[in-house]
Design goal:
The protein has 514 residues and is of the alpha/beta class. The protein is built from nine helices and 28 strands.
Length: 514
């Protein structure tokens, strides 16, 4: 069976929200300190303590939003600890991530400054787990109110006269787990109470996001939609692509789930893996499609007009941390396997973008499936970064209808579709096709027909691939894996025949005649 793809260039569907290409930065390991933030006195070039080379790299991929301060850290974060003179800020223990001292030098003002430098939308997650309604309410007021009040006076005394613009605001994080170990019925009541007091001030209107399910906990989605969706703009799914997950799900008679941890289990290495481990990660990544589909069915029952969005504000690969590093810092290398997994997941998000409003890969710098790794003054861009660079053409583009017939990729008796894709049309009329060949051993010939487009203009292609499954960039070889020109295709009338390498991510841009 040949791989075939038919694209209708006039069948424009919804807009792919650029927020799907969002990012996540938690006070975890070296994501903030030693990553984004090196301090004003650092020898590393910086602006107000923010590392310049990281800012420039992220602006290149058009990072649309940044989620902060967590993660599990968010539901132990008390925002007043991170304002005022830095030498007077409270030092705390980061009990979730490594038991290290958190000096709170990076707080609300620093986060908004970082977002200004990145030219990106801030997304703040409020503390429902260990905080109070008053604390969350006053934080929103501190950030967004322009009138006369104790919070605006406090903000002005701390050097910020005018409020910031804040759209995205999370009402808690993982409240089924590190955010309070709550039953969904209890959380639904709490999220209704908390978001009532997270007010809109002036013309600053919050987009309120509730903590959604972990993975395939569809009951969580159902109860939230039934009991709280009238007061929400979105619910946030969390799902990590991994092997040997040590978190074990158990059910109790009320139908809720409990999450237990078996620390004897391993998620395996990020860099040392075989073909079976490669297949396992691809299978795990593709499962995102099923979860979104089943969640969308539930959401459609309560919200057929699709007013409430799905957000996936934590996703990405998760392996054992690199040997010799703090296990609480979640520092892992990043290979071609991560890149193909990311491309596959982004294709899924694009194809579900009628309901999916935002996604935030975890995490931007030095943690989990990072865009960037640092070592002192040195910085490298990971294979995943290069996928985001290729896929930025989809941001705010029109999703196009297509049909894809793919050959099977088999491993130990299990099969997956070898090719996955998404297609969009840019403002200038060009069609952008992103394809992933998840088979690590076999190239794929894909015969692609583009209907209702007319004569082709210029065609451009890029590919990210390697002869090695675990190809990566290191501080000694920072450009070992990066995109190159893709020219292995032929064109006849409205048909393009592509020869896509094994284990690769391809972007093909078909432009209209000038």
């Amino acid at each position: 069976m040949a791989n075939q793809m038919i694209i209708n260039a006039k069948a424009e569907k919804n807009t792919i929200n650029k927020m799907i290409y969002g990012h996540f930065a938690e006070h975890l390991g070296r994501c903030i300190y030693g990553g984004f933030y090196v301090g004003e006195d650092s020898e590393i070039p910086n602006i107000d303590g923010m590392r310049i080379d990281i800012i420039e790299a992220l602006k290149k991929i058009k990072i649309p939003c940044l989620r902060w301060p967590g993660g599990c850290f968010a539901d132990e974060y008390h925002w007043r600890d991170g304002i005022g003179a830095k030498e007077e800020r409270k030092e705390i223990i980061n009990s979730h991530w490594g038991g290290v001292v958190e000096n709170n030098h990076f707080g609300t003002h620093e986060f908004f400054r970082l977002c200004e430098l990145l030219e990106t939308e801030p997304y703040i997650c409020g503390n429902l787990g260990s905080g109070t309604v008053q604390e969350m309410s006053e934080w929103v007021e501190y950030m967004t109110f322009d009138g006369k009040s104790p919070m605006t006076t406090l903000r002005k005394n701390n050097g910020r006269d005018k409020p910031w613009r804040l759209k995205y605001f999370g009402i808690g994080n993982e409240n089924w787990g590190c955010g309070g170990r709550m039953r969904v019925e209890y959380y639904a009541d709490e999220v209704n109470r908390y978001n009532l007091y997270a007010r809109d001030y002036g013309d600053n209107v919050l987009f309120r996001i509730a903590a959604g399910p972990r993975g395939d906990n569809y009951k969580w989605t159902k109860v939230l939609m039934r009991d709280a969706s009238m007061h929400l703009d979105a619910i946030a799914l969390h799902y990590y692509t991994r092997l040997g997950d040590p978190v074990i799900t158990t059910s109790i008679p009320d139908g809720n789930r409990r999450y237990l941890r078996d620390n004897s289990r391993t998620r395996k290495s990020a860099t040392l893996f075989d073909k079976k481990d490669w297949f396992g990660i691809m299978k795990s990544a593709i499962y995102m499609d099923e979860m979104l589909y089943k969640n969308e069915i539930i959401m459609d029952q309560y919200d057929p007009d699709k007013r409430v969005s799905m957000v996936v504000d934590e996703w990405g690969t998760w392996f054992d941390c690199e040997p010799g590093t703090n296990p609480g810092f979640l520092y892992q290398q990043n290979t071609l396997r991560d890149a193909v997994s990311a491309g596959t997941t982004l294709n899924i998000f694009n194809n579900h973008s009628e309901r999916v409003h935002m996604a935030n890969i975890a995490q931007t710098v030095n943690v989990l499936q990072a865009m960037i790794l640092t070592e002192g003054q040195r910085m490298i861009l990971t294979p995943t970064y290069h996928v985001f660079d290729l896929y930025k053409v989809h941001q705010d583009a029109k999703l196009l209808d297509y049909a894809l017939l793919s050959e099977e990729y088999e491993c130990d008796g299990e099969t997956l579709k070898q090719i996955n894709a998404s297609v969009s049309k840019a403002v200038d009329g060009s069609v952008n096709i992103t394809l992933c060949n998840i088979n690590p051993e076999k190239e794929a010939e894909v015969v692609c027909y583009i209907e209702d487009f007319g004569p082709f203009g210029r065609i451009e292609g890029k590919v990210l691939t390697s002869s090695s499954m675990n190809a990566m960039n290191t501080f000694e070889a920072p450009d070992n894996l990066r995109p190159s020109a893709f020219t292995n295709y032929t064109v006849k009338d409205n048909k393009i025949t592509l020869h896509i390498p094994s284990k690769s991510v391809v972007l093909l841009t078909v432009k209209a005649p000038e």
